[in-house]
Design brief:
- This protein is α/β, with parallel strands linked by helices.
- The chain has a single domain, classed as HUPs (Rossmann fold), CATH 3.40.50.
- It has nine helices and six strands.
- The protein has a six-stranded parallel sheet.
- β2, α2 and β3 form a beta-alpha-beta unit.
- It is globular.
- The protein binds adenosine-5'-triphosphate and nicotinate mononucleotide.
- The site of nicotinate mononucleotide has 15 residues, from β1 and α4.
- It is an enzyme of class 2 (transferase).
Length: about 200
């Protein structure tokens, strides 16, 4: 796990990154700027618990490719989930919190994940424990209205103009960041390379 000083605000950007692309870099840039982050941990998962791992490239390969996208000195590319023994975000976040009780963390995800967030293990606990920033993505723009997470935690949604304060707020607190969007996806990149799955 990267080193971080007490009181800092750290964005946690988990993903398969199979492979990473400019859309991920855009999310990282938006999060760094609009959430006023001190660090962003680009967390490469050994495998999303809800996705098939059939076409998943080795973790070391995905990690190396992510490094190429992480030009900002505030970004730390990591794969520490590998040694935690769980890829469930709720458990990963609990381990992060236990090791860094005085650090402020924000979970960051694209809007497509907001749509399915209620399928994640202990999703309500995640939302009640960690502030969340959702970054808009083509095809998922309306998820901030329609998703189960958005409806359940409607009362905890903050205006995106207040996003720089999110890291200092008690959960549940979340925001949806509109702005430049990227059509890129790993699925399309894999298909272009003839990788099925
Ligand atoms: N173009 C994009 N715009 C906004 N968010 C994105 C974009 N691409 C990926 N994300 C977000 O980045 C995180 C990691 O995404 P992931 O590695 O699954 O990429 P992906 O392109 O969605 O992959 P796949 O097509 O294999 O599902 C997720 O939170 C996802 O929502
Ligand atoms: O904990 C879960 O149940 C869970 C279900 C789906 C996805 N996640 C996490 O969400 C992050 C984004 O996943 P992905 O595949 O969309 O890049 C990544 O860190 C996954 O491990 C977590």
């Amino acid at each position: 796990m990267p080193h971080v000083e007490p009181g800092m605000v750290v964005g946690l950007f988990g993903g398969s990154f199979n492979p990473p692309h400019g859309g991920h870099r855009l999310v990282a840039d938006i999060a760094l700027r609009r959430l006023a982050l001190d660090q962003l941990w680009w967390m490469v998962t050994p495998g999303n618990p809800l996705k098939s791992h059939r076409a998943l490239a080795p973790l070391s390969e995905r990690l190396a490719l992510c490094e190429d996208f992480a030009e900002d000195p505030r970004i730390r590319v990591t794969a520490f989930e590998r040694t935690l023994g769980s890829t469930y975000t709720a458990q990963v976040l609990a381990a992060i919190r236990a090791r860094n009780p005085k650090v402020r963390f924000i979970w960051i995800m694209g809007a497509d994940n907001l749509k399915n967030f209620h399928r994640w293990q202990n999703w309500e606990k995640i939302a009640r424990t960690f502030p969340i920033a959702v970054v808009d993505r083509p095809g998922a723009t309306l998820s901030f209205l329609s998703s189960k997470m958005a409806r359940t935690f409607d009362y905890a949604r903050i205006d995106e103009d207040d996003a720089p304060l999110l890291g200092h707020m008690a959960a549940p607190a979340w925001t949806f960041l509109h702005g430049p969007r990227s059509m890129l996806s790993s699925t399309v990149l894999r298909r272009q390379k003839g990788i099925i799955g």
